[in-house]
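Deliverable D5.2: sample structural annotation.
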Amino acid sequence: MTPSYSQIMSAATAGYAVFALAKPRHLGTALTKSPLKQPEYDLVARMFGPRDLALSALALLAPSPLARDHAMIARVVLDLSDAALLTPEARTRTAKAKVLGATLTWASLNVAAIVADRKDR
């Protein structure tokens, strides 16, 4: 059976979650060049891990397409909230662009997956 687009995105999100847990400093490095401030974002990255793993599991193990859609929509909402909360934390235009690029691209890919899966039903 071919995986759905939502399942592919959920697996990719789970991969990011593992990365966030294994290398939490990636977030601080993206947001600021200050080695003194970077550790402050480790906790945020560590929170992304379980959150993203849980939503990925919900989407991958969803008992119905509607339940999967709900998990995917939650993922989009969280990506948009990450953009809104983390962009002001970035200290340079380049850092702001990285945050917006990552969060809005991920949200867009998840929306595209939802729409493509609905067309395939």
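Annotation notes: The mean pLDDT is 95. The chain is about 80% helix and 0% strand.
The annotation will be released with the project's public dataset once the embargo ends.
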